[in-house]
Amino acid sequence: MKKFVSIFVLFCVGVIVRGSEWIRVNQLGYLCDDVKVAVWVSKNPGQITSFEIIDKATNQSIYRSTHITPTGEQPAFAASARLNFSGITTPGTYYIRVGETTSPEFRIGNHIYEGAAEIPLMYMRQQRCGYNPYLKDSCHVMDGRIVCSPDGKRDGEYVDTRGGWHDASDYLQYVATSANAVYQMLFAYSQYPESFGDYYQANGEEGPNGIPDILDEAKWGLDWLVRMNPDKDTYFNQLADDRDHSGFVLPNEQMVDYGWGAGKERPVYFCNPYPQGLMQNKNRSTGLASTTGKYASAFSLGARLLADYYPEFAALLKEKAFDAYEMGLQYPGVCQTAPCKSPYFYEEDNWVDDMELAAAELYTDTREKRYLEDAINYGRMEPVTPWMGADSARHYQWYPFINLGHYQLAVQADGKARQEAIRNLRTGLQRVKERGAQDAFMNGVPFIWCSNNLTVALITQCRLYHEITGNTDFLEMEASMRDWLFGCNPWGKCMIIGLPEHGDYPKDPHSAFTHVYNYPITGGIVDGPIYASVFNSLTGVHLSKEDAYAPFQSDVVVYHDDWADYSNNEPTMDGTASLSYYLGYLASKSKQSQQVQGGTIRGKTDCRQLTLVFTGDGYADGYQTIRKTLKKHNIKGAFFLTGDFCRKFPEIVRTLQKEGHYLAPHSDKHLLYNDWSKRDSTLVTKEEFAADLLNNYTALEQAGATIEEPRYFMPPYEWYNQEISEWSKEIGVQIVNFTPGTYSNADYTLPDTKSYRSSEEIYQRILAYEAKDNLNGFILLSHIGSDPRRTDKFYNYLEPLIKELKARGYTFVRLNELLN
Asked: pLDDT below 70 — which residues of the chain?
């Protein structure tokens, strides 16, 4: 996984407390079109009037702005302000400066989240129970023995419940969190399948198996859920209990004695519609629907997404989905987790959201109206997840933290039911937005235990609402709360372990893997900030060392990077799984950034390869220089030539192909396909386009070229729209275009024009771009010739450019190799 982690390298500052003011930013970075807001905070009263954006490559100020929203006094700070720099959309590495205060460096670009969706899976694999691929060993292989059976007759009976995931840094396992984790990962894949790769086997060890890794991980959880639901009348809710908390050890070394011998079987709790607890502490269970509803939705979606890979297993899941839903109908109410020695448990008080989602999934499977009607009715029983807008809640009181049933109704129902679902999603978002209106970070999430999980739920709901409606009212809150997770918060702390690699993320989480054995637990999201009053009330929570973040603590909210604070700094399995959707969305922007208007603008980015591409129409003065340079360095380029070029320079066409270069069309007459200022306004008919492209192919063949497959085509002026791309695909041709950002395509500009770029400027720009980012997968375009009025020819820089990029570790490949 180093290839994924390494892409997040940012040279961010760590915990350095100096001065009295700070600028908080998203240390991982921003998408090009994001709402981009940093937060300035100060220990001293007062206000700022402007800020600057500094380009790291040049250390020059490129943007000075007064777009500042004062937000006044905040917990731990006497003054604060929001600094909006959304106008900066050019990819690059930057930092913000206010007077003498500077922010950590950050990047802008759509590719910066590439591979991000794979990171949480690293932690999920490490959380596996049974065979653990991280440890290359197995744990808890004797699970388990039944407790709390309805009539007591099955108590003590052995049942095979091996597998699944440990819930957090303890090794308990719950159906509630596991089924939600399964559903969250499956949902993420269903929305953004292109974001998830295949690098691991089903057992979690390295090596592809033809199945996306996120589906492998979801199936690991589904296998366990099936064991926890061995028949249609038996539903288990929990494996192990808080007697687990007997010391910091690795799971394969745990030797807790639950009454059947040290390291032997662990208790398996039956789902019961009444309070449970083997010792003095009891939960408040009232039914089964909260658990069986989660079973049903995970089974249903799993059946659909795994059908192509595991058809028999998928059929079993589908059957179990219906059975679990019927059990929920029979026993409405909540089935909470069971405490034992301590008073802490997951106090889930809502269940209609689980049945709503289950009914919506079964409607997707069957299209039977009764399931849709059930989903609508359940949705009306809890229009808004109750934590949204609230000041507090008990631990996991309203779970899951997002109602994806509302989303499913919004996309499946119509008329009044659809509008109700959309309104419900909006109402929840509006309540949180209003609650955070006076907060410098726009944070309206209550700082209860696992506040980061609520934050992930919030940004997920923001994104889904925007995808459904196109409404932009919550985009700033979405961006701000995502940025909160990556360091734009009072502590300047990234909340996902190891992400970004050189960000200020938790270094001392509550985990035996890290604290005792120094094993990294990359990908896990920690609980997050908590009310100071809650922190002070918890049993067993303390600090083991001096608090590095003391200047940023307040009597309102605290965060500690300290293993002894399990309320702040313990990663959770379900919270981590819930990241899959939003990181999948962010990663998809990287994939999308390799296409613009249906045209491919970048190749594979996982290695240091690029392609040199040249276009030609009326001029060929650089031919001999380019040809000799490429031949000297054994590089095969790509030449996109117009029909007019082919008819004017047929010998060049034949020689280029003879020497192994890729040849393809650039249009016959170099037509302008669409308006410069209104891109979606096409200026040619479909017939005119097709005829021009066909004539270009004819000219290539008449000049002696053989047409290669796959057929790529670079439009004239490198300007096109989605309609042109679709027309190209209809005749078996894929549009490609240059990768933007380096100015290499400006080698045709003339000295008397405003757009003029000298060859030296272009050369230095390419190298500077590579230094601050990379050229992996680049389609680097220049021209085979240019107007005689431009005497400063860039092709004379081609050899030194090739030498320098080779020295930096790049290889030059043929276009078809780069794109396949």
From this structure: 1-18, 591-593
